[in-house]
Amino acid sequence: MTLYVSDLDGTLLDRDGRLSERSRAGLTTLLQQGLLFTVASARHVSSIRSILGDLPLRLPVISGNGAYLGQIDSERHELVHAMEPALAQSLFALIRRHDLMPFFATHSASGDQLFYHSAQNIGQQNFINERQRNADPRLRHAARPQDKLVDPVVTFVIIAREGPLQVLQAEIEALCGGTVETHLADDLYAPGWPWLTVHDQRASKDQAIKTLAERYGLAEREIVVFGDHVNDVSMLRAAHRGIAMENAIASVKQVAHSVIGPHYEDSVLRFIETDWRR
Fold first, then answer.
1. Which of 38, 53, 238, 249 is geometrically suited to a Cys-Cys bond with 59, CB 3.0 to 4.6 A?
2. If we measure between CA atoms, which residue out of 32, 36, 60 comes closest to residue 48?
3. pLDDT in tens, 60-92
4. Cα separation, 44 vs 31, whole angstroms
5. Rounded Cα–Cα distance for residues 70 and 57 (Å)
6. CA 69 and chain centroid, separation
C-alpha cells in the first residue's frame, strides 16, 4: 500500500483555505476503507484541526513545516523540533537591526504560544486578524517580545516586501549556517506580502515524513506527496512520487514526477481516488 501526504494551502484546500465538501466526503470514504493519508503543512495543529477536524485520520499530522508531529484530535505533539533560546535571541536581534518585527512561536511544558508586538504593514495585520478571527489559542500580545525568548522557539515569521526579506534571509543563513531552515514565499491569501519563516534545521517536511514512516511501521511503503510551494520542494524530492499542482511554483514543478490539476478542483482527491483504487 501507499502512504499519501498532502500539503494544505494551495494544494488540498480551495481558494478560501477550506476543504471542499467533495474532498471531505471523498477522503472520509477512502480513509474508512483503509487509505493511509495525512497532511504536512506550515500551519499549526490547532489550525489544521479547525479545517480537517472531522476527517478520520489515524496517522499524526505534520505541522509547522515539519517542526511538529502530533495527533490532530488531542493536538498533542509526539515530536517538536525547536531552536534553543540563545540562537533565537541572536536571530531576533538580527531581525530588529533590519527594522523588522517578527512573530514567533514557542513551545514549553506549559504549551504553545505565538507572540506579536504590533503590525508594521498590511501583511502583518492580516496575519494577526486571521488568528484573532479563528481564536488561535496560542496568540499573545507582548509589549517587549524579546523578554519572551526564554522558551525554545519553533518558528519566526517575518512579513514584509520581498526585497528586504531576501536581504534578511541571506544574513540569517550567513549567521546560522546549517542550524536553521528558511523559506521565503508569497502569502497565497495576501499577494505582495511574502513571509520569511525560520525553523530549526531538523524541521522540514521530508524529515518529518521519514520520522512518521519509521515510527508507524511504514518505512517500506511507497510514499506519494502533493505540494505547490517552496516549503514542499524537499518532500517532493524525497518521495517515491512527488506530485505538483497546476498552480505550483516553477521550482516545485521542476522536481515533481508529475503535475495534476489546480488545488481548487479537488485534484488531490481525484488523483488519490484513481491511484489508490488502481
1. 38
2. 60
3. 999 999 999 999 887 789 999 999 999 999 999
4. 22
5. 11
6. 11
| C-alpha closest to that of 267 among 221, 236, 228 | 228
Domains in the chain: boundaries: 2-80+203-277, 85-200
Determine contact, residues 169/184, Cβ cutoff 8 Å: yes
| Spatial distance between the Cα atoms of 21 and 238, rounded to a whole number of angstroms | 31
Q: Is the pLDDT of residue 35 over 80?
A: yes
Cα diameter, the chain? 56
Give me the CATH topology for the region 85-200: 3.30.1240
Same fold, 2-80+203-277 and 85-200: no
pTM (whole model) above 0.85: yes
Does CATH place domain 2-80+203-277 in 3.40.50.10540? no
